[in-house]
Amino acid sequence: MKDNGFAVSMNRGGELVQEHLYDFTRDKYKPDSPFLWGPVPYFLMIACTVIDLAFFRTLFVRISYDDPTMILLEVAGLAFAADVVAAYAGILAKRISQGLSRDKFNLGLLLLVPILALVVNGVLRCTTMSLTSVDGTIDSATVALTIIAIVTPVFTSIGNFAISFQSYDPLGQKMCREEMALDAVRDYCRRLEAIKAECDDFNGERIKEMDLQHLANAKKELINEALILYAEVRVKLMEYLEDPASTNVLSKSRCDEIFNRLNYELKVLESACSENSAIKESDVTEYGVRYAVA
When comparing pLDDT for 23 and 209, which is higher? Predict the structure, then answer.
């Protein structure tokens, strides 16, 4: 499992999801041996087939006088019977051993095909031993080569059968898929339960109170900014006029009324925030509304 510091991640909808949900299940059914991992068994079976193709080609090139295409088909047919059918026999045997199939008749037919192919190869090798030499004599080297050409396809056919039997695990694959499906269902149920819990925790009155509190805070912030701007403008005007008489007139102007009104509104908002309720219409006089519009 990849460890990036977080057990879950968030998707675009704001929902927590598990990216490595199936990692534990895959690790559980991972092959223990590197010879059973990934493409290694297929590579070994292909190597066995290539070996048989080479041996069968030497046989049919010696005894067959047909065109090259026919020789190629003869070699491919005997290699198919000796290796590919043996691999399928191993697959069916594994299914029968795990209780997933009872088709023993087809297994017998599949085993009979490579056996007959190997018997034919042995008979042809024994009957054509004299063709290996120019004068037709059979010596110990010829016998040894013939024996090797007979038993090597037997080894490769048995190897293909055994490799396919060991590498193919239908029951384990089925159980892995079932566990991954259960993990997906559990995760889906968890997400539905989280949505249900969020819906159950929803409180309209609490949301309304939070909205009113947010509105009151926004109004307070607006009034505070207005007071700051008012003080700055007043100071700037005093500095610009540089006249005590003008300053007195400015200090006793309608700005004082605005300042008092702003203070009053600020107190009303503070009381509204403390009580967690909206400001009543009676707290705002007709004068205040008219002046605020002006």
Answer: 209
DSSP state of 279: P
Pairing of strands 9-10, 16-17: antiparallel
**Nearest-5° angle of CA 241, CA 247, CA 251?**
135
Q: Which two tokens stand for residue 158?
A: 């048995």
Does the pLDDT at position 84 exceed 80?
yes
Please count the residues of the chain.
294
- Residue 236 pLDDT class (50, 70, 90 cuts): confident
The string over 59-94, giving b where at least 16 C-beta atoms fall within 10 Å of a residue's C-beta and e elsewhere, is: bbeeeeeeeeeebeebbeebbbbbbbbbbbbbbbbb
Q: Output the 3-class SS for 219-265.
A: HHHHHHHHHHHHHHHHHHHHHHHCCHHHHHHHHCCHHHHHHHHHHHH
In sequence order, the 6+-apart residues with CB closer than 8 A to the CB of 255 are: 230, 234
CA dihedral 230, 234, 240, 241 (to 10 degrees): 140
* DSSP 3-state of 32: coil
